[in-house]
Design a protein that fits this description.
This protein folds into 2 domains: 227 residues, Rhopdopsin 7-helix transmembrane proteins, CATH 1.20.1070; 146 residues, Heat Shock Protein 90. The protein is built from 12 helices and 9 strands.
Length: 476
């Protein structure tokens, strides 16, 4: 028989129970709103139930009718089960709380049956269940320590192992008959259980508090890492945007270079042909008229090539150039003179200018307006009745304040199925005429870059295209 100690067993149980009750309340106060609410509630609630169980057992002699011994121990079993669930949640392992509670209630029913068998059987069963519960809790804490690299979880595992060892020692003492029943006296084996229980109440709850703090630090580190990654992605996106802008600027400059290098030789060739034409007409050489006709034909072909290249290069430039358009006050007569000068002589002779505006100048990008008007006039000359007159009217508008330029071709109306797509890239009314379907597409782009628009009214007496250029507004 082990020596006894001068302590009241019920007072000891009551003291440990109060300690078990106070500690989880302290942990709850600290962690409320700072950690996962369900996990915190499970741990603190389970620890509190274990404390309530010990308090009820400690008060059994004082208030024997409060609760039976079977119910008090069942409450303790449920407390261990709930704490086990809390640790599994910290690991991220799904578990059913109801299943764990039912297992604890089943253990409580078995305890009630053991009570009927006798004091020793009841004591052995209770010690075995508590030791098993401590071992299962220690295992979950150890797994949590390994998975999360948590020193606090190791602390929980250690205290649970200590309590499990103390309970198994007490179990062995009862089995061998050297243990002292705690109902009347307090033996050395019981003292070991008491000390381990107090350490479990203190270190276990402090350990869970550390687990929560480590999780908070982990979340903060993850947020900092995410913020750093987002910052890095943002900086990378800015660098990519800058690189794309630089590439766009480079392409824009390249297109200007190509435009100049391709156009200039063609313009030079045209100038030479014009000089030859003048000499042929002046000297009136034999066969000069036939040669002049061939030169005129060559000039016409070169003009077509130049116009095609101009449209292709203009479309490419308008598509890649993202810089804002600068509008400047420009004389309308100069715009008309430049645009008509781009047409062949036989085409210019078919244009009838009808100025109906009070405006003498307007805010525009003269290069874009010249490009739009030239393409519109060439389109009208190509689709109008051969030899017919194309009307060019210049008007102004007060609502909204804008410059209007109308081009009426007097030709057959545009087909209804073609009309919705007339300003789209590649759209052509006739395939027997030269071109790539870029003319009206470029007109639309050129007007949009200036904040304006182009519309068409297809009627039985011809098609009327209208360029609208707002005044007093910034370009889109």
């Amino acid at each position: 028989m082990l020596p006894t100690l001068p302590f009241d067993p019920y007072t000891v149980r009551l003291t440990i129970g109060l300690l078990y009750t106070i500690m989880p309340l302290t942990v709850w106060t600290v962690l409320r709103g700072r950690h996962d609410m369900l996990s915190t509630s499970l741990w603190c609630g389970g620890a509190w139930l274990s404390g309530v169980s010990l308090v009820l057992i400690g008060l059994r002699e004082s208030i024997p009718l409060v609760l039976s011994l079977e119910i008090a121990n069942t409450v303790g079993y449920v407390g261990y089960a709930i704490r086990w669930v809390a640790l599994r949640r910290e690991r991220g392992v799904p578990v059913r709380i109801v299943t764990a509670a039912l297992a604890a209630l089943l253990a409580g029913g078995c305890y009630a049956y053991a009570v009927e068998l006798g004091v020793q059987q009841r004591l052995l069963f209770n010690l075995a269940v508590l030791a098993l519960a401590c071992l299962m809790t220690a295992r979950e804490a150890r797994l949590l320590a390994l998975e999360k690299a948590s020193r606090s979880a190791r602390m929980i595992a250690l205290t649970c192992l200590m309590l499990a060892a103390a309970l198994l020692l007490r179990l062995l003492a009862v089995i061998t008959g050297v243990g002292v029943p705690m109902a009347t006296r307090f033996g050395l084996d019981s003292a070991v259980v008491v000390v381990a229980g107090m350490l479990s109440a203190l270190w276990g709850n402090i350990g869970y508090l550390g687990v929560a703090m480590e999780a908070a630090q982990g979340r903060e580190s993850a947020r900092r890492a995410e913020l750093a990654a987002a910052t890095a992605r943002s900086e990378q996106a800015e660098r990519q945007a800058a690189a794309l802008q630089a590439l766009s600027d480079e392409r824009h400059e390249l297109l200007h270079v190509i435009s100049h290098e391709v156009r200039q030789p063609l313009h030079n060739a045209q100038a030479v042909l014009q000089g030859v034409d003048r000499e042929l007409h002046t000297e009136l050489l034999a066969g000069g008229e036939a040669a002049a006709a061939r030169v005129a034909r060559a000039r016409s072909v070169l003009r077509q090539i130049t116009a095609s290249l101009d449209n292709t290069l203009a479309a490419s430039t308008l598509l890649v150039d993202s810089r804002p358009t600068s509008l400047r006050e420009t004389e309308i007569d100069m715009l008309l003179e430049l645009s008509l000068g781009d047409l062949p002589p036989d085409g210019r002779a078919r244009i009838r200018v009808e100025p109906q505006a009070d405006l003498r100048s307007a805010a525009m990008d003269v290069g874009l307006m010249r490009l739009a008007l030239r393409n519109l006039l060439n389109n009208a000359l190509a689709y109008a009745v051969p030899g017919s007159t194309v009307s060019l009217r210049v008007l102004d508008s007060d609502e909204p304040l804008a410059l209007l330029v109308e081009v009426a071709d007097g030709g057959p109306p545009i087909a209804p199925d073609l009309l919705p797509h007339i300003f789209e890239r590649g759209t052509r009314g006739r395939h027997d005429l030269p071109g790539q379907g870029l003319g009206l597409y470029i007109v639309r782009l050129a007007m949009q870059r200036q904040g304006g628009s182009v519309t068409v009214d297809a009627g039985v007496h011809g098609n009327v295209f209208t360029l609208l250029l707002p005044q007093g507004l910034e370009p889109a």
